[in-house]
From TrEMBL:
NCBIfam families, alphabetized: spore_pdaA (TIGR02884)
GO cellular component term, pick one: membrane
UniProt entry keywords in alphabetical sequence: Signal
Signal peptide: 1-18
Domain called NodB homology: residue spans: 61-242
This protein's name: Delta-lactam-biosynthetic de-N-acetylase
Organism in which the protein naturally occurs: Fervidibacillus halotolerans
PROSITE patterns tied to this protein: NODB
Gene designation: pdaA
Amino acid sequence: MLATVACLIFFTSISVEAVSNTPIHWGFKRAKGEVPPEAGKTYDALLEKYGAFYKGDPEKKVVYLTFDNGYENGYTEKILDVLKKEKVPATFFVTGHYLQSAPDLVKRMVSEGHIIGNHSWSHPDFTRIHDEKIVEELEKVKKKTMELTGQKDMIFMRPPRGIFSERTLQVAKDAGYIHVLWSLAYVDWNTDNQKGADYAYQEVMKQIHPGAVILLHSVSKDNADALERIIRDMKGRGYRFASLHDYYLERQWEKDQLFH
């Protein structure tokens, strides 16, 4: 009996430790000359294993606009106005604080055809909390979003602080989520160090590339002021804006073709 228990403990420890919880702080060498960035084979394989992604097809001039909304700073309404005017879909990754403090804006996002993604309830480092807590963080956002907007399906999530591990990838996938990282971003979240719309425009445009998943923070005045110009000039370069649902459906179609 003791031998059986010891054996079970041994195999349990192997199972638990087989999935690494080593924190990964997402980052890569920025794109240049419209050539997509590369995170490297190791990260590419890890993300692929769990259905996560950070960029789309490098052969197609299709881009995906995403915003992280931790709190409202007075600029989201202008951002939504621009998106509506330019007929551009976006995904807004929201926290619990945002859902509670800006419910009308969240409702508007969904009513105008945008996706609400999960950015966790309290924005913790997922690698430092238990599996059950991760699931709770995600479920609370999903439930509150559905209460506010009626959006029942929530499959996209972005890890708080851009930190994840193989363990957190697995927990999120088991909970029904796809990690959405990014291939284009700049330091835009520091509200005490905004540098103007021209700066924001240049930072985005010099990194643009086919398949870009663009991360912007809605707290940035620079982003709000530069967004219309960014969108129009990207369209002028032949880029098309698509939603993450478009990306997901295309990827599912490609997978289906592999099995036929």
